[in-house]
Amino acid sequence: MQQHFSLAECDVVGFDLDHTLCRYHLPQSARLIYDSFAHYLVTEKGYDEDLLTLAPDSLDFCCKGLVFDIEEGNFLKLAEDGTVLRASHGTKSMTFEEILEIYGRKEWKHFNTVSGMVSRTAKYYLYDNYFDLPGALLCARVVDSLDQHDGQKKYDFWKDMVAAIQHNYKISAFKEDCGMYFPEVKNHPDKYLQRCPDSVKKWLKQLKNAGKILLLITSSHSDYCRLLCEHVLGNDFEEYFDILITNALKPGFFSHTPNQRPFRTLENDEEQEALLSLDKPGWYSQGNAIQLYDLLKKMTGKLDPKVVYFGDSMHSDIFPAHHYSNWETVFILEELLGDKGTVPAKAESEPLEKKGKYEGDPLKVPYFVSKQWGSFFMDRLPGLENAEETLVHTWSCKCISTYSTIAIPSLEAIAELQIICTMGRSRQPWLGLQNWQCAGCRYMGLPSRDQLQIANFTHHRPHVF
């Protein structure tokens, strides 16, 4: 891995949309997403109506980096070596003894697959973004319900969960007012969407004025993208970008060939004919990174233009952009705002269903440290045979250092810093972050000698700032 990264040396700056350029009011959006999935399971698939209500603070269960072992009904928090740090069956936390009995002190059986490609399969599901995360709580509660009523040992409800996701997020749902999610956001955008800070909008304009090519690459369809961008950036949002790509279907955008995933033009938000090549800037749908990069070569006049991409999903943004396209990646990780590397005491093992129900009480902000799951970055590993416990990094933390160039809590973390010029570079922005300490040091207790000295934007990997 390279030891230095300079935004000034990047020719192209790309952005994901949801939870990157467009930030959400997380408590409200989390509840909406949960309700939209639960309503489908109850009304369309006949699941228990109790799923429609939530216990106080129940969204505390939702923690990025969890892996759902679908057949067993277990949620797992993995260490960087693949061993299980914490686990729950449904919403009920497992004891250390139960974890040892089921998983031992060895690598989880699917770890090689999930870690190699940051992947998802029919046997497990990785929760790594806020659009998916409320579904983790719903799945856990379904396991609780099935245990209570049916005494199941293996679980086959995942197909119904997939149907709920597809029903609420399918391409035509926005136009058809289908499901609960899109109609609610359309009718009450201020309730769910945060306005983009002026500092970020100014920064985007500075990048473009400095000669950078700006990309927007989102898996959201064009009509939803338009709603979000007009609300958070303004009606002139298209002026911020040279190329807009919607319905990108990431991570496939990075891994598929032009034949598998051609670009398509748009007319009134309807996809038109497939394009044999991408010849000019504009707004497109679907597509692939190979043809996009060919266009970037033409636009920059360089054989190997350097691209940096900002995104919030390790599965859909950071890993594939790094692995398949060799782009620099900036991981938007809101957990940096609340997770100081602390490891709370073990949570109660009582299922959430037994803690009472409520309607309309305020919800805890999801990105704060989960009491049940502890720190996103590290955790305690109990010692065997009276040995002392040790602190270990999580697999999620390892992914950050492996696949992201840097990690920041939001775009404001960069946009509000002074942009100055480098010596000998005419009108090239240089990110002056003098004497900042990286999050790897601040949040994980690493030595101060590993501070991020960014007068020259020098990044001491594998930390994040």
UniProtKB/TrEMBL annotation:
Key words of the record: Acetylation, Hydrolase, Magnesium, Metal-binding
User: Could you tell me the superkingdom of the organism this chain comes from?
Assistant: Eukaryota
SUPFAM superfamilies to which the protein is assigned, alphabetical: HAD-like
InterPro entries reported for this sequence: HAD-like_sf, HAD-SF_hydro_IG_5-nucl, HAD_sf
A GO molecular-function annotation: metal ion binding
Q: Which family does it belong to?
A: Belongs to the 5'(3')-deoxyribonucleotidase family.
Q: Return the PANTHER family for the record.
A: 5'-NUCLEOTIDASE DOMAIN-CONTAINING, 5'-NUCLEOTIDASE DOMAIN-CONTAINING PROTEIN 1
Instruction: Please give the name of this protein.
Output: 5'-nucleotidase domain-containing protein 1
Q: Which organism is it from?
A: Catharus ustulatus (Russet-backed thrush)
Q: Which gene encodes it?
A: NT5DC1
